[in-house]
Every structure is written in structure tokens, then in C-alpha cells.
Amino acid sequence: MDYRKQLLIKEILGYNADLIFLQEVDEFFFNRDLKYVLGPAGYEGCFALKGSTVKEGVACFYSNDRFKLLHSESIILGEVIQNNHCLNEIWEVISKKEALKLRVIDRHTTLQILTLESLDKSDELLVVANTHLYFHPDADHVRLIQAGISIKYITDYIDKLKKETRRNVSLIFCGDFNSVPECGIYKLMTTGLVPDDYIDWKSNKEEAVEGLSLNQPWRMASACGTPQYTNFIQAFSGCLDYIFYQTDRLAVTQVVPFPTEEELRQHTALPSVVFPSDHIASIADLRWTS
Predict the structure, then answer these.
(1) Alpha carbons 66 and 52: distance in angstroms, whole number
(2) Which residues does residue 172 pair with via DSSP β-bridges, in sequence order?
(3) 236: left (phi over 0), alpha (psi -120 to 50) or beta
(4) Do residues 135 and 178 make contact, with C-beta atoms less than 8 angstroms apart?
(5) I want to staple 148 with a disulfide (CB 3.0 to 4.6 A). Which of 115, 122, 190, 214 is the partner?
(6) What percent of the chain lies above the pLDDT cut of 70?
(7) What are the C-alpha distances in Å from 43 to residues 32, 230, 274?
(8) What are the backbone angles phi and psi of residue 229, rounded to the nearest 5°?
(9) 170 Cβ partners below 8 Å, 6+ apart?
(10) CA distance 79 to 105
(11) pLDDT digit string (tens) for 53-76?
């Protein structure tokens, strides 16, 4: 890690980003390294643990020159599903099947949400959400449920924010979704609907989800599209990471190109002496459309 963290910090600083979203962040690394390097570079950071027993989580840094933090919070998806009224429809379905219910509520998956005020455009608020969904190969249904919980919670959060502030609000939702573009999460985020007969619901026979469709009201797209690889290890390679943005409020102006497969295979797989993470950074420039 002493070698890798030097490359990680150099790479992160090199993007000169206004917003930085990180997953699988070690708590010690956040507090002892990232804060002390990014702080003097003009960033403030927020960290959200994956439950009380895990020393790892997600982190967001924002530029002090571009944004002011108005509010931050984080939730554990397996906990909030049991007691939040906006999630009743999902809870009623999954609670009918004990194996499914236990699989969902036993996960420590975290959703981090920040409300940022633009210092360039005082009438603009930006809600940014960051997560790292469950990884297991037989759990497309769990990940889709987690995405459904997340987007419904975010929607309820923004509805309340709009009523309280009466200001323009734009949404960016990003992270490691552990889900390839052919799966239901990408369909939910980009088309707004996953029907109750979608194949993801049957990814585990004993926990098959019945009678649940998901929808969300936002016009969303992936800022970096669907590159061939965002994760490249010996056992798996594919696109798992996305920056979903609200297309009627934001537009992409440019995207940093992804490395070629030849570059990724130069040292067998990731991480390597060149690439400090097993994931490739997704980097995009966004602007407000109004």
C-alpha cells in the first residue's frame, strides 16, 4: 500500500477535478493520507463507513473554490429499507421471502448523499450520491434492489429539498455498481423502468424476486458511456462503474479516454506497477445546461 497510495494520490490530484468520488476507501487511508494531501490542494472530504464493523467505505471530495457544502448524510441500505415510508413498496415484496429479506438487510452497503451549492451560479444546487453495491456473482437481484432503494431514497430527498429551498436542483449518482450494462441497473438508470419479469430478478433461484417492478423519474445517462472495461482483474473484466447524470440539467463536454486493453494487459492485470487500483478512473467534464 505504501507504493500504491503514492500513485493513487498523484493520479487523483492530476485530474484537477471539482468533484472526486471514491469507493472501497480504507478509513485509515482517508484520515491519514487523503485528507492531509487533498486538504491543502483546496478540497473538503466526506467519508461514509459501510456499517459500524467495517473500516472501509465511500468518500467524496469537493473543491472549495467551486462548491459550498449545505448538507451531507449517509445511510445503510439494508437498514433504511425496513423503516422508510418511501421504500414500502420494495419492502413489502422482499419481506415475503425470508432468504431474500435476510440477504438484503444483512448487507452493509452505504449510500452517501451531499447537497452542494454552486459558488459560480448561486441559484444552483447539486445533489451528488455515491455508492458501492454488493459484489457477489449470483446477486444481480440484490444489486437491483439496492439500486431501487437508492434512487427512491434520492428522489424523496430531492423532492423535500426542492420544497424547502425552491431552487434549481441537479443530480449526479455515481459509484461502483458491480453491474454490467446488460443488467437491470443500467436499464433502470437510463430508461427509468425495470419490469417485474426482468431476468435479474431470477439470478438466485431460492431468492427470486416476484411481483416487483422498479421505476425512477429522472432523465439519466452515463457520462462516460459504457466503456469495455472499468474493472480489469485476472478473474473478471468489464464495465461496472458509472457517473449517472441528469440530462435535462447537465451536459457532458468531454471524457478522459480509457486505457487500451494492451496497456491494461502489459502487467497481466490490475492493480499493477502502473495502475494502482483494480478499477480504472471514470473522468468527465459536466456543465449546467441553463
Answers:
(1) 32
(2) 128, 245
(3) beta
(4) yes
(5) 214
(6) 100
(7) 15, 25, 25
(8) -135, 130
(9) 124, 125, 126, 127, 245, 246, 249, 250, 288
(10) 6
(11) 889 999 999 999 999 999 999 999
